[in-house]
């Protein structure tokens, strides 16, 4: 695998992580009031939501990271398969003097 393919894989991994973290951030922005996001929960209901959110967030991060690793492995395999085959074209000039 060449440096350009390796950079492409790393860039794709970064973009996929950004998607995942951005989605979690938007959920926290929209629903964080349920667990008093940013502060300690004030009551039992907020504590329950905070616990549920932490568990769900952890599951989503673990699943997303696993899928990112699998996608990167797929790309590495694809690039490796492409690198296995090379074509060498040989050109010869039969008659240099064609005037």
Structure description:
- By secondary structure, this protein is an all-alpha fold.
- Helices cover 71% and strands 0% of the residues.
- The model has no long low-confidence stretch (mean pLDDT 91).
- The longest helix has 41 residues, at 44-84.
- The chain has 2 helices and no strands.
Strand content is: under 5%
Which structural class fits the helix and strand makeup? mainly alpha
From the alpha-carbon coordinates, what is the Rg to the nearest angstrom? 26 Å
Q: Helical segment tally?
A: 2
The quaternary organization reads as single chain
Mean pLDDT: 91
Query: Given the C-alpha coordinates, what overall shape results?
Result: rod-shaped
Question: What string gives the helices and strands in order?
Answer: HH
Low-confidence stretches: none
Distance between the termini: 46 Å
Report the strand count. 0
Biggest sheet overview: none
What is the helical fraction, as a range of percent?
A: over 70%
Note the main attributes of this structure.
2 helices; single chain; mainly alpha; 99 residues
Task: Give the arrangement of secondary structure elements.
Elements: H1 3-31, H2 44-84
Helix pairs in contact: 1-2
């Amino acid at each position: 695998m060449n440096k350009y393919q390796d950079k492409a894989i790393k860039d794709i991994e970064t973009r996929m992580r950004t998607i995942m973290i951005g989605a979690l951030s938007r959920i926290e922005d929209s629903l964080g009031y349920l667990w008093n996001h940013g502060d300690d929960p004030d009551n039992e209901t907020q504590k329950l939501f905070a616990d549920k959110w932490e568990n769900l967030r952890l599951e989503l991060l673990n699943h997303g990271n696993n899928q990112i690793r699998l996608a990167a492995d797929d790309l590495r395999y694809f690039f490796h398969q492409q690198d296995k085959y090379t074509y060498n074209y040989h050109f010869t000039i039969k008659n240099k003097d064609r005037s």
